[in-house]
Amino acid sequence: MESPALQYWQALRALLETTVTSQVPAIERAAELAADALVAGHRLYVYDTGHLLSRELVNRAGGLVALTPLTFHLAVDNTIAHEMPRVGREPDEEEIRGYVRYALGQAGVRAGDAVIIGSVTGARVLPVEVALQLRAAGVRLIGLTSREYSAFVPARHSSGKKLADLCDVVIDNHCLVGDAVLPMAGDSVRVGPTSGISAATLMWMFCAEVVARQRDRGKTPLVLESMNLPGAVERNRKKALQYLSAFEEDGDD
């Protein structure tokens, strides 16, 4: 019997081959959108509701200086939380709407910027509300989600929308319902999720396309180098300052 490790690899490889070959057109459209934004002097953000994108893509050797994490969270510390019935409940939609409005206002995202939003199902209230408010502000949206999993889960936002309904370009990570792929004997729960690995693969393909399109437009792509290479720390610092200086000239903070 083939080992579970190899079974997982075989399932993952099959899924990646299908995903990668089918999503090249979407990746190219997304890269065109992002390159247009960067060449026009706008910013490129990544907002991830899952476990990977903002950590995988930001400040990585071979990655774009321009990829900026759009992160926000609300934490409440309370030593008597067990005595308070409201603590730990999921916020309602109106609370999320106000929270997102404040967070995006503080982040300074502007019309013409591009934002990658990652959500495996794209059905929860938070990513949909983020997408709705960004879209209303004139921001271009790239969605990374699973159309199959999304179709399985009911929309939770009162608009009835899901992430895929709101983005200019959708990249489908082909994540199966439930995410994990490997059934284990004696248990109905599967092992081995795929969404993180497929998301990383698709987004690095996207970054390669963005770099190529910037060069085609006569712009030098700002790409980070490994800090272990001689002189790379200083070169990376200069690239970051070069990227930020464009916004300072426009009066951005």
CATH topology group:
Rossmann fold
The CATH architecture term is 3-Layer(aba) Sandwich
At the first level of CATH, the class is: Alpha Beta
Taken together, the total number of domains comes to 1
Calculate Rg over CA atoms: 20 Å
Identify low-pLDDT runs. Answer: none
Main beta sheet strand tally, sense and closure: 5 strands, parallel
Category from helices, strands and their pairing: alpha/beta
| Proportion in β-strands | 5-15%
Number of strands: 7
Number of helices: 8
Order of helices and strands: HEHEHEHEHHEEEHH
Sum up the overall morphology in one term: globular
- Average pLDDT, rounded to a whole number, is 89
* The CATH homology group name: Glucose-6-phosphate isomerase like protein, domain 1
Distance between the ends? 60 Å
The percent range for helix content is 40-55%
As laid out across the biggest beta sheet, the strand order is 2-1-3-4-5
Describe the structure.
There is one protein chain. By secondary structure, this protein is α/β, with parallel strands linked by helices. The chain has a single domain (4-249), classed as Rossmann fold (3-Layer(aba) Sandwich), CATH 3.40.50.10490. Helices cover 47% and strands 12% of the residues. The protein contains 8 helices and 7 strands. The protein has helices spanning 4-39, 53-57, 93-107, 125-136, 147-152, 163-166, 195-216, 232-249; strands spanning 44-48, 67-69, 114-118, 140-145, 169-172, 182-184, 187-191. It has a 5-stranded parallel beta sheet, with helices on both faces. β6 and β7 (187-191) form a beta hairpin. α1 runs parallel beside α7 and α3 crosses α4 (125-136). The radius of gyration is 20 Å and the shape is globular. The N and C termini lie far apart (60 Å). The mean pLDDT is 89.
